[in-house]
Amino acid sequence: MDDNCKSGCRGALVVLEGLDRCGKTSQSARLVKNLDELGYPAELFRFPDRNTVIGQMISSYLNSDSQLDDRTIHLLFSANRWEKRSLMESKLRNGITLIVDRYAYSGVAFSSAKGLDIEWCKAPDMGLLAPDLVLYLDISPEKASERGGYGGERYEQLEFQKKVAKSYEILRDASWKIIDANRTVEDVQEQIRDIVLDYVKTCRNGKSLSQLWLK
Ligand code: NYM
Ligand code: MG
Fold it and tell me: Which of 18, 49, 87, 132 is an S-S bond match for 137, by CB 3.0 to 4.6 Å?
């Protein structure tokens, strides 16, 4: 709860997206710390959130401990976001900025890379909270694969990541900020922090929350 956040004021919903090994997870953690230090309360969310029952089903699928139909796993990823929606909304309204490591865009990018129809993929996430800002950490699939190797989870393969990169290209719009993720961790961190601060300030001054992929 941020006591300096008066009526209309809220936290910003900031989403980081990108291929596996693009640096999202380190950057999300650094961003939360930077914002906190600057006096803007911030918390980290991460999807999939493997701590819930649905999250455990997802985790077991990603580790290849279970097999699921492509549409079934897609819907589980979406349900895993829906189960956090009201918590996220209450935190935002309490003035807390949320830094979210992957969101519905990952859902669509990874599932459509398997050949599922993009509109079908978007449908279950319609009406989730719409982010105020999407940061896309841009790195080539080849470069990402050179970074310390993949962790052996499903999807962590160069040929598949190339398809995911194409899906993200279809999905992105002019509002996304494309961050060159080939630079040092510190350079990327600095650029992200400056962009995000602008959005945090705008949301504190009152900006209505909207819903994803709905008019
Ligand atoms: N992933 C993530 C999906 O396929 N759909 C989704 O909706 C989300 C949120 O899960 N390779 C994929 C992308 C990743 C994998 O994510 C695990 P992470 O950020 O590596 O824990
Ligand atoms: Mg990963």
Answer: 18
Query: Cβ(192) to ligand 1 under 6 A?
Result: no
Residue 7 pLDDT > 90 = no
Neighbours of ion ligand 2 (CB under 5 A): 20
Q: Pick the more confident residue, 150 or 45.
A: 45
Instruction: Kindly tell me if the per-residue pLDDT of 215 is higher than 80.
Output: no
Q: Is the CB of 47 under 6 A from ligand 1?
A: yes
Higher pLDDT, 149 or 54: 54
User: Is residue 105 within 6 Å of ligand 1 at its C-beta?
Assistant: no
The pLDDT, as a whole number, for residue 75 is 99
Task: Give one DSSP letter per residue of the chain, joined into a string.
Answer: --TT--TT----EEEEE-STTSSHHHHHHHHHHHHHHTT--EEEEESS-TTSHHHHHHHHHHTTSS---HHHHHHHHHHHHHTTHHHHHHHHHTT-EEEEES-HHHHHHHHHTTT--HHHHHGGGTTSBPPSEEEEEE--HHHHHHSS---S-TT-SHHHHHHHHHHHHHH--TTSEEEETTS-HHHHHHHHHHHHHHHHHHHHT-----BTT--
**Whose CA is closest to atom 5 on ligand 1?**
107
Q: Which domains does the chain have, with CATH numbers?
A: 13-204 (3.40.50.300)
